[in-house]
Specification:
The complex is a heterodimer of chains A (151) and B (498). Chain A has 151 residues and is mainly alpha-helical. Helices cover 71% and strands 0% of the residues of chain A. In chain B, α6 runs parallel beside α10 and α7 packs across α8. The longest helix of chain B has 34 residues. The chains are: A mainly alpha (151), B mainly alpha (498). Chains A and B meet through α1, α2, α3, α4 and α5 of A and α8, α9, α18, α19 and α20 of B.
Amino acid sequence: MAERISSLVLIIVSVYVFWGSLKYGIGTPVDPGSGLMPMLASLLVFGLSSGFFVKDIVRAGKHRGRGDAEGLGRYAKPASLVAGIVAYSWLLELLGFITATIPLLFLMLSITERHKWLRNLLISAVITLVTFAFFRFLKVDLPIGIFHIGW
Amino acid sequence: MDTLQNLLFGFQACLQPLNLLYCFVGVFIGTLVGVLPGIGSVGTMAILFPVTFNAPPLGAIIMLAGIYYGSMYGGSTTSILVNIPGEMASVMTCLDGYQMALQGRAGPALGISAFGSFIAGTLGLVALMLLAPPLTTLALAFGPPEFFSLMTLGLMLLIYIAQKSLTKALISGGIGLILSYVGLDIVTGTERFSFGIPEFVDGIGIAPIAMGLFGIAEVLQNLETTVEGTLLKTRIKGLMPTLQDWSDSIFSIVRGAVIGFCLGILPGGGASLSTYVTYAMEKKISKHPEKFGAGAIQGVAGPEAANNAASSGAFVPLMTLGIPSNAVMAMLFAGLLVHNITPGPLMLEQRPEIFWGLIASMYIGNVMLLILNLPLIGLWVQVTRIPFRFLFPIIVLLCIVGVYSIDSSILDLRVMMFFGVVGYLMRRCGYEAPPLILAYVLGPGMEQALRQSLILSHGDFTIFLVRPISAVCLGLAALLIILAVRPKKKRMVMPENT
């Protein structure tokens, strides 16, 4: 199933790029256009991905009934991290680096050791403050948000 | 004589206190990265990429290069003590290094690894110094067809030695090319695939892509299945190899250096392939092949020498032809471009202080690494004890701050996250990231070379076949594709993590 989905996504992307390339113009051999190289690359991806897609359908047809046996539980931790960082990207400039990063670090530490929440909170605060100070020392601008926490 | 004078010029540039500091920071971080499984040199270079924007060009490239060859030294520590390779190039060291440690000979294993790396690294530098100037002269005669064909060959080589599916590596390369064409076409002024987002007019930055694919994706994968190694609980003593150890391994070191440098030069070659080839050769020519895998010191000395020599060899195509031979060189390539320095045959003429300063810094860096890896081995042993659950938040935080600091843009953070998820899914589905990043870096150059070639030939594609060097390169690329469709067991593949 993963093979089929990934192939399908690649087919869709390559078709989109192919049509876009035609829109930009592939030009002529004497005067190649903007769309030539993207078109060639998209044809490569389309051709190979289609092959995988068809191969997977044929294989699935031969082994009907045998599905992917992987549980979804293994994706819980990565998914939590991704969700946390996505939320962080929305909150970073609003709340500021320190206010947004402490909860993110807390989440990351809690992903692997949920029960040690006080320790995780302390470590999150210390790492956030040290990181903020270090990067401000390097003259890297980090947002201080609407609460103006930081310098 | 000219070479010596140029080298002295390089030392003059490199021995500035600031450049020495950059060198030390680079090799220290490189060793740290090599010791810690979980993030490789490419991810680390991507994280530190924004720091180099404000650094002087020579300092920036010295630091980035130091991370690369420093990681070759550091990778052996975890291979020997924990049986987990810190770097892909240290996989072969696990086979005999850990066995030596189990036999109470961790010290000599670490020692011969460090000394072997130093000797091979130095030999590799001498070869780089002697080979690069004449190659540069040759490369000045290259035209657009030769460059296009060389880049194509380089991409094909990297794809050929892909660890898993060749077809998927080819698809990764294709995606990398597509990504490289996002933004403004400098010839026609057409905006391509920018979706109306102003930040994408200049293209998608390499730092968010690389940090996502190599940094965030690695963390996500390790979160899913964390590999715990057992640190050998033994006191490490006697780091100096005995005379017998030297006698057994000196020729392995020299052979490893030669093989490593030669394979490192090849676009698509690199440190990992050279260690595999060296190990196989040492075992084949050994009078006691049965000892390999059971603690043969040659099994440590040879591969470790090879990976360090390869790291010097990899600079040859980058510096002389302007073609990065692997993902690490692609990051260095990007690092130089940021400072408006285009690697290639003209760099030696126009910016000799960069080239010779870098070589001189690598001599100094190798000495620093010998000091870091022997007397400070206790420090690295403690580092290996840090559990991944404490490391990954720091890695993620550094990625976030690093990418945000480029342009203070939340979009870069989101792009990094997007490619982090993409990189993670790619790994789950068997697609590899190095062909993508290399194609991304080579894409604009390939397009420019192709266009120039067609303009030169008035639209005649046979220009790639009538020019000998171009024809040979394309022929080799085609041969690789033909070889690639052979059964997998007959193809030399990169060793997987043990």
